[in-house]
Target: S-formylglutathione hydrolase FrmB
Amino acid sequence: MATFHGHFSSVSLGGMQTSLQVILPEHHLSTPNRTLYLLHGLNDNETIWTRRTAVERYADTYGFSIIMPFVDTSYYTDMAYGKNYWTYLSEELPKAVSSYFGLNPDPASTYVAGHSMGGYGSFKLALNHPEHFAAAASFSGALDVSSLLEYTPEDKKDQRRRSLNIIFGENSDLDSFGGDLFTLVNQHQKAKRPLPNLYQFCGTEDYLYNMNTKFRDHLTTHNIPAYYEESKADHTWDYWDYCIETFMRKISEAEKGLD
Amino acid sequence: MATFHGHFSSVSLGGMQTSLQVILPEHHLSTPNRTLYLLHGLNDNETIWTRRTAVERYADTYGFSIIMPFVDTSYYTDMAYGKNYWTYLSEELPKAVSSYFGLNPDPASTYVAGHSMGGYGSFKLALNHPEHFAAAASFSGALDVSSLLEYTPEDKKDQRRRSLNIIFGENSDLDSFGGDLFTLVNQHQKAKRPLPNLYQFCGTEDYLYNMNTKFRDHLTTHNIPAYYEESKADHTWDYWDYCIETFMRKISEAEKGLD
Amino acid sequence: MATFHGHFSSVSLGGMQTSLQVILPEHHLSTPNRTLYLLHGLNDNETIWTRRTAVERYADTYGFSIIMPFVDTSYYTDMAYGKNYWTYLSEELPKAVSSYFGLNPDPASTYVAGHSMGGYGSFKLALNHPEHFAAAASFSGALDVSSLLEYTPEDKKDQRRRSLNIIFGENSDLDSFGGDLFTLVNQHQKAKRPLPNLYQFCGTEDYLYNMNTKFRDHLTTHNIPAYYEESKADHTWDYWDYCIETFMRKISEAEKGLD
Amino acid sequence: MATFHGHFSSVSLGGMQTSLQVILPEHHLSTPNRTLYLLHGLNDNETIWTRRTAVERYADTYGFSIIMPFVDTSYYTDMAYGKNYWTYLSEELPKAVSSYFGLNPDPASTYVAGHSMGGYGSFKLALNHPEHFAAAASFSGALDVSSLLEYTPEDKKDQRRRSLNIIFGENSDLDSFGGDLFTLVNQHQKAKRPLPNLYQFCGTEDYLYNMNTKFRDHLTTHNIPAYYEESKADHTWDYWDYCIETFMRKISEAEKGLD
Model:
């Protein structure tokens, strides 16, 4: 696969230089035309997936272009005190990759995935824009943002509270900006709106495990079918390396009618 | 010159991945042992100086290693709502470049420079840590941060006010964290503390011109010698390309007794 | 401007990973649709133009996308003992940039330029594929490759002879593969084939100066109009920084009818 | 781990710009002080290990700094028709990483590994400079260079012969420049010179499998102890991802007395 890393000025981010990593099919090969938006976790940047996993190899094996943006520690949100990373991700980025790389993917072959904060971002994107994606995956996702504080160790609660205020504002009214995944599920069920296929992975040793079973149960209760898989794993990159390959393989097999 | 770009985890930034660009002398050549911290402006990143100017060529001509960090839109501040970029720049970065590149520069041959927001950062660093630098340069610097709002066009004042609150807090008490350059000058004069040589460049067409003459006059009033140069120039990269070369040439000549 | 650096597998180079640097217009701005292939000199790589000059700034000012490939020390040739960099440059690279960046430039707005070995490459490309380019520029170009050995200091002649053998073969029959610029000029004059506009820059202190005046005279003798400019300059990057901006400005002015 | 990618001018390569990728321990963490030179295969470059495997993650887990140079298609040789990549690798590169990154590793904690052509390079380095390395690993290595032609499919033999001539010269006298691993083994046995620990991995489905069992048997015959492991695997990156992690884990365990 070909890979490019670079910088451009983002309108949504106030004109700021932002960085982007992409993996593209070799120009001389005809490969399946799938596109995957791959989202990073808290404290990561756009290079982290290529550095901690073998994702470029899987892109080759299973036939994906991959787009890896940078969103700072924004929780894929238009921050209460900070930049509009949600607008950047959901509106500007697709235009940017169309302009720079000629990527205009068909929703039927467009995917989104991410780990931890990026798992939340992945489902947030899929549930707010179901018409843009064929499937979405969360690996050890921080899926219940409104309860994040409860999952934080006592001695780090003050710092976490402060961070959450910066991102979501003092009142953390997640619903008002499409940020609560549970509410979004409710709304979709009521509207009987078709959803992308959801793939949820989590390790049983993960500190976010209970948050993940809660979301799984919420989907079940609302009769929203989803792929759910758990393993004896923690909140670590060796697991996410396994997850991303498994997700890409499953997508590839599903399209071949093997899943 | 050799050049490297990369990423590492910053403690001051909460463990976040941060990006760094450096220019180093070729390993097989003996070049003067000067080190320059080169700071970016608002909405730029660590790559901007190498992209908009020929700074690597000047590093070769005048004998400098160059360190170019990323500080987001922080105004080189521990942000009221955001990350501790001041701590990162002033405390962690020197340790990081010592660890990664073996750079342990002598203060007598260490310099800092920047444009716009980075001009403010350069003088803020030099006036808070005069013992670390031989000289500091500001190119079209936003030197009077407390009056930035006045320099902002009416229709952008709301957005600017919001940005300043995020950076400096609602009360914007610059003095309390060593952020007001005018106060720092007063303090140094009273303490008769030796200061790095200050180099101030500004274009007469720059929207920050009055802010720059105000600071120049403040230095003069307080009997702090400084190099001041103005040209018919605007707030643009062709001028900063001229400024950085001129500053590096002047440092080089001064050390040879030519200035 | 946006900029990307990356790697892909080249068919012409036997499947080898090759590196590419590009500068593209910001996705949200409508800029003139000019494309410039910008070629490096001996011992350089695809990053050198961005590192030693402010070319990204000029791309913005004058409205160019820029493609900067890597060709090793090949003299833009399918090497006698080595890789097929000429095929890569002249046939594969346009397809690659079309695939990766959606760049399908109109010949009327496509340009090529380079310095030293890259000046030769630029004119070689323009004279072999005049239908692809509106103009070509050589800065201090090694335009008379067949006499390169004469321009080499006595104590380096052996090494140079060896290098030339590796590139061009023991007999160095430049004509047989379209490598002699003087012969190409003759052929074009006879065929009355329309040529791209040629821009030739050289410093009077350059060790390749006589080679450049020889080529200028050859063009004059054959009634091929060309822009020729010489300055008191040597074979150095400060001059090429001047040359590339001047060339881009002249192209921009010419299209506006100012030249 | 921190990671940097960049460019510098190499003396051994005639002053040419060469590219280098490194992975370094985070500046704020005390990690084991192991250094691994990690070598690429034919048609790869300095970025390939980070792109096709999760090597940065293993560097973190097992405590290694990693140096990844670029050697073109040179077979880690001072090429008959080309550049002196052997001199670059074996003499200049250690000085370069000492200069740029302050890396001056103790031979007792210095390692070398590579796949395919890089497996050959790894053992060539270890057998020519046993005093510099604690261990060396070959993954699917092209260990018997003198028989490479026999391993080449009939329809590609001409191209391969041509490539080998460019690298090793018409007579391919491997012995004369320390390039035949079998001869080196003989010499070491006679001289009873201590050798680095050798780790040899190969897949049974690999087209170089017989070459690898031949070398394994040669070591056995000469009473040189080595770790040998084979799996049902082909000449592919998923296997090398497994190999590099396994090698690093074994080194780590051996130092802890677990191996």
In short: The radius of gyration of chain D is 17 Å.
